[in-house]
Amino acid sequence: MSQTEQIIERGKRVLIGNYARLPVVMARGEGAFAWDADGNKYLDLFAGFGGCVLGHCHPALVAAATDQAHKLWHVGNTFYTEPQIDVAERLNKFAFPGQAFFCHSGMEANEAAVKLTRLRGGQSSPKKWKMLSFNKSFHGRSLAMVAATGNPAVKAGFDPQVPGFTQVEPGDFDALAAAVDDETAGIIMEPIQGEGGINLYPPDFAARVRKLCDKRGLTLIFDEVWTGCGRTGHWFGHQYFADSSGKSVLPDIMTLGKAVGGGLPVGIMFARPEISALLTPGKHGCTLGANAICMAVCRTIFDVIEREKLVEHAAKLGEHGLSRLRNESRIKVRVVEARGRGLFIGIELKEEAPRIVEKGLEHGIIINLTSKKIVRLAPPINITPQQWDQGLDAVINTIATI
């Protein structure tokens, strides 16, 4: 039995089998590349479910974590620490005026957002407490976020569902408006549906949702767990949204995860100040949220993205990638469409391809499959043009062989 096989057998004995793990042991990474324990090299086009937004072991992130580790790790949120303030100030700079709550994951950020939405709704008469979301959405795997998620497979086995969550078809504004009643507190939506298959909305949909929320006194949450930190070619996915006059469509609350930690556990709920003021002491918390090491890395992620103009870089490479995928004759017979924004791309196949991730590994790339037949690409946004073209070549070759 090889060393890799031995490690896998050890893992099978002691790790819960809730992940469909591949028979590969990853050992190290550098930039856009990862190596397994047998020395095989892969171009990582999925970046740990988007978490490694700057790739593996980025020198600036390693330095930030190391420097902070020699200063202060964690003291709890009964004290101020400068790294978390720095991160919140960067969100004000790149998103909109607001205040931040820090936790460990996007799921926790969404939980906090829904709690805050209910606090706001509780000031109304009758009290507003219900939430609307969309089919094909994904907001996390806690009991409440399972109820918010519009995917029957995620809900299976966890009945009875947490009450107060209803889904409608994405992009169907009339259905959404009809679902609002006097007890509806808010709407949660991903600017681009991630787990659902990189699904975009009609051009005017978000603006109409914003107007509906203003008219009915609802809180609008944009779940940016997948679309934050420059991945889509804007700092945040909602920055693509505008009304007919060109005015930006802003949320009341934005949630972040994945990329905002660069691979470390960071979640953020970021809310307009007049709403965040409702979250008074004792209403919500997170013991290790705003851990100083994580915050130092998070702060540095924003600085690197700004300094290296990676938002623009992601937009440019995304356009190039979509053009190649849409015009490649070798895969047209197998592909319904390629869609997305920036370096967040979905390739919908005409038929299910359950082993395409394994075939990708054989071609030297790490990719992902969601909804049974949608290949997802979410590489580090600092991937070079040459590496991106190399990866696209391998993606095309992989699809062409299924």
At CATH level 3, the topology of the largest domain is Aspartate Aminotransferase, domain 2
Binned, the helix content reads 25-40%
Show unreliable segments. Answer: none
- The CATH architecture classification of the largest domain is 3-Layer(aba) Sandwich
Q: What does the largest sheet look like?
A: 7 strands, mixed
Beta strands, count: 15
Number of domains: 3
**Order of strands across the main sheet:** 4-10-9-8-7-5-6
The total of helices stands at 13
Let me know the average pLDDT: 97
Proportion in β-strands: 15-25%
Q: SSE string, helix = H, strand = E?
A: HEEEHHEHEHHEHEHEEEHHHEEHEEEH
List the helices and strands and how they pair.
Blueprint: H1 3-14, E1 26-30, E2 33-36, E3 41-44, H2 59-69, H3 82-94, E4 99-103, H4 106-121, E5 130-134, H5 143-148, H6 152-155, E6 165-168, H7 173-179, E7 184-189, H8 205-216, E8 219-223, E9 253-256, E10 267-271, H9 273-276, H10 292-307, H11 310-327, E11 335-341, E12 344-349, H12 356-362, E13 365-366, E14 368-370, E15 374-377, H13 385-400
Parallel strand pairs: 3-13, 5-6, 5-7, 7-8, 8-9
Antiparallel strand pairs: 1-2, 2-3, 4-10, 9-10, 11-12, 12-15, 14-15
How would you describe this structure to a colleague?
The protein contains 13 helices and 15 strands. It is of the alpha/beta class. A seven-stranded mixed sheet has the order 4-10-9-8-7-5-6, sandwiched between helices. Strands 1-2-3-13 form a four-stranded mixed sheet. Strands 11-12-15-14 form a four-stranded antiparallel sheet, with helices on one face. The longest helix has 18 residues, at 310-327. The chain is globular, with a radius of gyration of 21 Å.
